[in-house]
Amino acid sequence: MAKQSQQTKAALDIIGYFLGVLLNLVFYAVVAFGIYYAATNVYEFAYQIVGDRVCEAEPGRDVEIHIEEGESTMDIAEKLYMNKVIVNKYTFYLKVQLFEYKIMQGTFQLNTSMTYDEILDVITDLTKAQPEET
């Protein structure tokens, strides 16, 4: 009986060891996946701010955007996002804030294949606004 109990204890020790190793592997796999997921999302977010991300491939479609006096940057970003001119309203807002762009009021002709830099080049230049119809 004592011999069987020693064999049972040894078997339980071996099973416990392998379960411990397995749990460690699962834990580290979950941590590695979490780090990978976070890194790819941070990269994508940053690339939207400084890269050349567009909503649609060329030729895209033309969109007329009217920006009113006193309209907040987030409202403008929301308007651009709802018209599918930009990919993410938060990255656009952050780019405007980080690089201190001054958005002008007026009606602007934009295209869904424009990058953030091209969009900002248009909406920060009053000479590119369409003339107001009376």
Primary descriptors:
134 residues, mainly alpha, two-stranded antiparallel sheet, 9% strand
Distance between the termini: 103 Å
Order of strands in the sheet with the most strands? 1-2
Helix/strand order: HEHHEH
The beta-strand count equals: 2
| Main pleated-sheet profile | 2 strands, antiparallel
Which range best describes the helical content: under 10%, 10-25%, 25-40%, 40-55%, 55-70% or over 70%?
55-70%
Strand coverage percent: 5-15%
Which structural class matches the secondary elements?
A: mainly alpha
Radius of gyration: 28 Å
What is the average of the pLDDT values?
92
Count the helices. How many?
A: 4
User: What low-confidence regions span 5 or more consecutive residues with pLDDT below 50?
Assistant: none
Shape: rod-shaped
Topology:
Elements: H1 2-50, E1 62-67, H2 73-82, H3 89-98, E2 106-111, H4 116-123
Antiparallel strand pairs: 1-2
Helix pairs in contact: 1-3, 2-3
Description:
By secondary structure, the chain is mainly alpha-helical. It has helices at 2-50, 73-82, 89-98, 116-123, and strands at residues 62-67, 106-111. A two-stranded antiparallel sheet has the order 1-2. The mean pLDDT is 92.
Short précis:
This protein has 134 residues and is mostly helical. It is 57% helix and 9% strand. Strands 1-2 form a two-stranded antiparallel ribbon.
